[in-house]
Design a protein that fits this description.
The chain is α/β, with parallel strands linked by helices. It has helices spanning about 10-20, 40-50, 65-70, 90-100, 125-135, 155-160, 170-180, 185-195, 200, 205-225, 230-240, 245-265, 280-285, 290-310, 315-325, and strands at about 30, 75-80, 110-115, 140-145, 160-165. It is about 55% helix and about 10% strand. It has a five-stranded parallel sheet with strand order 2-3-4-1-5, sandwiched between helices. Helix 2 packs antiparallel against helix 3, helix 7 (about 170-180) packs across helix 8 and helix 11 runs antiparallel to helix 15.
Amino acid sequence: MPFSEIVGHEKQLASLRWALEKDRLHHAYLFLGPEGVGKRTVARSLAMAVQCREEASDSCGGCVSCVGIRNGNHPDVRVVEPAVGKKEITIHQVRELERDLNYRAFVGRRKIAVVDPASLMNLSAQNALLKTLEEPPKDSLLILLSTSAGGLLPTLVSRCLRLSFAPLPSEIVASFLVTRRGLPREEAELLAAVSTGSLGRAIHPEMEELARKRKAWAEKIASLTPKDCRGWIGLAEEFASEREESLKFLEWVEGWYRDILIYAVTGSNRGISNLDMEKDIKAQAEGYSLERTLFLFSQAGRTAASIRRNFNRRMALEGFFAHVVGLH
């Protein structure tokens, strides 16, 4: 879609518009931010703005180039992601990408590639991509998308221009759900809060199921005790059975501890995600120190990062729950 239709991220879009107007686009960008906040949408819109023949610093959305990019069949724009059934982006894929970028654009102004998620490139693939970043082919544009820079080589990160994408304010997400999706205001506000500023999650069909699961997850966490080893080890085994389920849980639990932090510091429910569970959040905010809550918040993110790097899920989750019950 054109930049003008994107919800939020005004500063990032203004930076890209300026670069397009002044013909100062960097050869490689790294878009960082949580899942579903719009990184891939902005990357696709940037590709459309570069290739569009009708607009100077944006895209028209309706020309052959714009339609081709939106449909995923533009000859000069490609998306690199894990192959079907695979968990990582391989060196073979990166070498194919390098060959493609070295050819002249077929119909567009540049050869453009989007790597999503860049953190799933294995070490060999990342090292291979460094050569392209160090000596970028003429008229090429590389856009890497990732939730964080933690899984990427520092040398790779340093050769990209970074743009950070924060979660959208819940008011913006709720307004979008009301005006464009026709949801009742109360339902829209709950989904906006649960999605933690991610428009992509807010409109996903699974969000309603997630809203139901949260209470069960919160009850399970609250029931864990240091003496009940079978309880937290069994819970780790339960979540470890499915990779995506474990990541959804850890993403939610990170937001849970964030809510506790917000409530502990402000004494208000403004900005918390789990609005319908305010009573539980207040109870935990009163029972945890800020230091412990911050520690558990960071451990949730680290555990998710380990699982994304294919670390043993059960061991990672056992370690996290050991922290929750205070054994580490």
